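U., I forgot to send this yesterday:
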Amino acid sequence: MGALQITLGVIGVAVSIAAWGVFVAAVIRQVRIIRLGQPDGTRYGPFVPRMKTLIKEFAAHTRMNKFRRVGPWHWLVMWGFLLGSLALFEAYGEIFDPHFAWPIIGHWAPWQLLLELLGIGTVAGGVALAIIRQANHPRRADRQSRFQGSNFAAAYFVEAVVIIEGIGILGVKTFKISSGIEDPALWSSFLTQPLAQILPASTAAVSIMALGKLLSGMLWLAVVSRYLTMGVAWHRFSAFFNIYFKREDDGGVALGALKPMMSGGKPLDFEEADPEQDVFGAGQVEDFSWKGWLDFSTCTECGRCQSQCPAWNTGKPLSPKMLITQLRDHAYAKAPYLMEGGKKDMAGDEIGLTGDDPHAGIDVLALAESERALIGDAEANGVIDPDMLWSCTNCGACVEQCPVDIEHVDHIVDMRRYQVMIESDFPTELNSLFKNLENKGNPWGQNAKDRMAWAEDLDFEVPVFDGEFGDAEYLFWVGCAGAFEDRAKKTTRAVAELLHLADVKYTVLGPEETCTGDPARRAGNEFVFQMLAQQNVEVLNSVFEDVEPAKRKIVVTCAHCFNTLANEYPDLGGNYEVVHHTQLLNRLVREKRLTPMAPVAQDITYHDPCFLGRHNQVYEAPRELADAAGANLREMPRHGDRSMCCGAGGARMWMEEQIGKRINVERVDEALGTAPSKIATGCPFCRVMLNDGVTSRQSDGTASEDLEVLDVSQLLLSAVKRDGDNEPAAADSEPEPAES
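Result:
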């Protein structure tokens, strides 16, 4: 150990003590900040399935690999960071003594190979990620870049440290070999062995490279400790916790059911709620749960959510990424005020800080941040612009694509809940929606007695529930659109006719049916949703009163009704087996109870409804039905879990679209690119939106006048019927489970 090694070693240790000190302090502070959020006791268990999900997602990179060009490179960098930490700590010994190596494994050939692979993989991964970031730079692609709005300086800093770390690992190893300290087999050092042949022998170089490897890591610790909002760096730690504490303990993403409206860590009971004490949605950043704060802290600004967002892709102000980062920046800026006990009531008056000088010692910037409204336009200095909040269609593309399991939709709806129920500040078009749902039980404001008008011209009787479920196998939930919207009625009629042809015993509720409450809930009016849902659960439970639980089956044509009945009603005591009509019809075709006789033989493109596909993973059944009908399916570029929304979800069906290009027109343009004869879908709202988009394109001459939008059930019906007559074949086997 010479003077050089001692000097370098003292420098390394001194810098490390300072860096590790500020880093540990930063971790403690960040944990304290995240705990400022509301309690949520639903996230802690069960341990085994959550840990399995965590291991699968980080070890196999299952979610990161949804972007295949990025996944492998990030996988290399991740393992370089995790396992490369061993090489980083080894540097403490190598600086003082170039001959130092870990006991037992230090000279072991497999360890030498692992170091080789870690060094090469880290450098290659870091360079590749920087190239990908440059290739997708916003200066070239503007809104098409998923990195627009991301912090490039922070990202390049992290990537630079990654590359330096990798070079340090390889450099130390190379100079150890050139100096005769190590003589590993060529297979374990296939890069460093040849490099060592052209580099001079120098034990000093070993110490210098080790110090460089160490200092780059310490610089990283010091910088991220200074900037707690540098998600691209902090996600290296927080992502593990964010994945473990995700909403669904079975590993599913936060789609399907919305998170219940919570207060104090428990679902809010409106009958016992106290406006003075309870939290109604999120009106201030501290109203989000601690998991929400963890979400904000974990965002890597990768922009995958942004690249998939239909609102962003049609020129609207909503970027799921920037919504999360704006909440993050506001939360951390306001945190010093909150940590001192600051709190405001709903009128905006200070109730947390008391005394003659309550603001003493609190950073003035934190005090200024505490005055900002969570929702407000630029003039009001709001954190989230109202147009950003209300542009969301709840399609779930952001949640589906996020590699660290951020729950964007739940956060957006929580903010809407506060705006609707406390502030009464929402798009004026929703007034009619809420009134119609409250007074008439449907968004269109139609009379309940007209719910069976769709069946008037059918040449068979549609059975209406009369107090006895009898030998019926299914309750056919028609839905508001299926009962009142002229285009959706055709789907309802087609399904009813197909069920009749297949001799499926079913019944409908008729006037007893009311809206499931989906549009109210997605718009933030939780009170109206609860009212409608509890009414429906009471009716449904009375219908199925004498039916054993395993046989309480409901078939629906509306993707939104499907999602609500299947995923949200169980929280209110409504437990049923809910199938989408495409699933049931597909099963009937497989059982040969429906036999296509006259193939459609046309080019069809299929649009995946968000609440059927992404929210509930029903992708194959509608496509198999189209195939069974004899259609030639042509997929749009965005389909399956990356399907583009039609624009109707999140109650957007009842709101004017005044910013940017209309989402339904964008989707129709994509469909037209497949040159279809027909556009098929499996949701009445999608059908309405796509039909309006087609009409728009027909009026400007872009689309053929013969192009039409229909439901896949109509395709099947036209294939099953020949000359208006078809005798279904009897089922010769036990029914198979519905395909999902």
